[in-house]
Each structure stands twice: as C-alpha cells, then as structure tokens.
Amino acid sequence: MRLKILESGHAEEQKQYMARITAQGGRLSDMMKVVLYRPNFFGLSFMAACNAVLHEQPSFWTQGERELFAAFASNLNKCKF
C-alpha cells in the first residue's frame, strides 16, 4: 500500500531537499519519503535508531557485516530498501 500523502504532503524544506536530489539525477526511495515526511515525529528517531544498530553499538561483527545482514534480511522480505 502506498500513501498518496508521500507524493505531495511534505513541508517546504523537505520538498526543496527532495528537488535537489532529483535535479542531480538521484531518486528518492519510498523509505526516504517516509523518513522526510515528518522528521521530528518519526524520521529523526528512526534514522538515529538505524545508525545506532548499524554503526554505534558494540558488536563482534564489523559495520560492513551488519549492513550485509540488513540487506540480506531486506531481500528475504522482498523489501527494495
């Protein structure tokens, strides 16, 4: 299910950021649109949690291995992200 609000409901600052990305030939994934939609409510906390899990928490796995695990789990779940 895709939320239509993610196509046009962003605040002006996020719209400008997304426009700069696409103007440079980039593409925003739906996940980034969700993160940018309400950054103070969801996006910043979510990205901080992702960063902590993938980069900051002590582990015997390297950062690259943890990112590979995340990519593998996404693939198993048929997630594009």
3D architecture notes:
The chain is mainly alpha-helical and 81 residues long. Helices cover 69% and strands 0% of the residues. It is built from five helices and no strands. It is globular and about 40 Å long.
List the keywords:
mainly alpha, 5 helices, 81 residues, 69% helix
Short description:
This protein is mainly alpha-helical.
Secondary-structure blueprint:
Layout (H helix, E strand, L loop, with lengths): L4 H4 L3 H12 L6 H8 L1 H18 L6 H14 L5
- Provide a count of the helices: 5
Structural class: mainly alpha
For the termini, the CA-CA separation is 15 Å
Number of domains: 2
